[in-house]
Amino acid sequence: MLIVMDVIADVEALITSLQSAGITVHYDVVTTRINLPLPI
Questions:
Q1: Torsion angles phi and psi, residue 12, rounded to 5
Q2: Its domain of life (predicted)?
Q3: I need a labelling partner for 28 at 20 to 30 A (CA). Which of 2, 7, 10, 16 fits?
């Protein structure tokens, strides 16, 4: 479970850096996974 949360945190950090570089990223799947109970 902690590993999954770490991966999600890494993805969010990557998306944040891309957005700060002016790149628009759509990650609806990631946000949906965070809002729903993880199946692990």
A1: -65, -40
A2: Bacteria
A3: 2
Tens digit of each residue's pLDDT (9 = 90 or more) over 8-25: 888 888 878 877 777 665
Distant-in-sequence contacts of 33-40, Cβ < 8 A, 24+ apart: 33/8, 34/8, 38/1, 38/4, 40/1, 40/4
pTM equals 0.45
Query: 32 is written with which tokens?
Result: 């949906």
If one counts every other C-beta atom within 10 angstroms of the C-beta of residue 30, the result is 15
Q: Which amino acid is at 4?
A: V
